[in-house]
Amino acid sequence: MTLPTPRPAAPHVVWHWATPQAEAVLASRDLGTILRFHRAVHRLNQTELGETLGYDKTYVSALELGKRSLDDVGSRRRVAASLGLPPHALGMTDVADTDHRAMVQFGESTVRLAEIARQTGHASEAMAELWPLAARLEARVEDGHSARDVVRLLAHARLGLGIALGNVPPEERLATAARWTAWSLEAARHLGDDPALISGVLRMHGNEIRKARVRGAAVERLRQAAAIAPTIDDRAAGALGDRELFDRVMREADGLLDRSVHTSLFNPYSLHEIRLRGLLATGRAQTAIRLVEEQPAPDQWPEPAPAE
Fold first, then answer.
1. Helices (H), 120-194
2. Are 226 and 247 in contact (CB under 8 A)?
3. Which entry of 161, 165, 265, 275 is 20 to 30 Å from 118 by CA?
4. Which of 71, 92, 113 is the last residue of a domain?
């Protein structure tokens, strides 16, 4: 019998694997349960799932009912890849994980590339890279491999995934985004002696819970970040409507602007725009109006991004 050629996994699959509902499904390590969950969230029938996996409807049904199993490693790896899952989710050791140094280097590169993807408007692609990495690292930590470089990488992967989730509609994903950044904070605090990392994660977590409209907790996270290291997010502080916090952050940003190399994101022009929005958000419209005419000179504007 000629099997149909497997088709690529749906681009939105990673979002569903990152949900709380998926945790219990994946924890079961039961292939039938995983296949049924995948079909349910994507509204696929068994024939359509078979087209993705390269099996016919009858075989998919047998797998879901536990009447057939995938005993060979090659088939399980292929199914995991088709569903957008890391190999360990179906009970296999990822070859890349056996070499600790290679695994960490691969993970660090993945985090950097995912951040670039997110910043250039490709948050879905960032999620597609970060969730499998986070899942692999979590499995490694659960197995007792909690070296500092692994935990640090896990903190960055969780944080990047949470931020990416917060940049992709629909709005109900915001709660899950906040959840992942909270898990990043848990990993960062486990290290204990890296204030810059903890402050950065607090700042990003505060921003995500602000977007989820948990304002009181967001203010508290931003205050904690400011107390640990002066790298608090001025845009988040302004959006929260906290005048005192916003003013303090802007003073810190002004000081950093005088001492730092300007970039396309951090420069007099962008800081001026942030200040205007923050003044409006904190009830000082007249002050904002007066500052409109104080826009930085054209030679202080950011350079335009290069054409793709």
1. 123-142, 148-165, 173-191
2. no
3. 275
4. 92
d(CA 218, CA 133): 27
**Which of these three, 66, 92, 118, is where a domain ends?**
92
Q: How confident is the model over 82-138, as pLDDT tens digits?
A: 888 877 778 776 655 556 677 777 788 888 888 877 777 778 778 878 888 888 888
Q: Which residue matches tokens 């396309």?
A: 264
Closest by alpha carbon to 127, among 283, 254, 9? 9
The whole-number average pLDDT for the span 303-307 is 40
Query: Residue 149 and residue 294: Cα distance in Å, rounded?
Result: 46
170-191 CB burial, b ≥16 within 10 A, e <16: eeebbbbbbbbbbbbbebbeee
Q: For residues 186 and 198, give the distance between their C-alpha atoms in angstroms, rounded to a whole number.
A: 9
Residues 6+ apart with CB under 8 A from 116: none
114 plus 185 within the same structural domain:
yes
- Domain-located, residue 290: yes
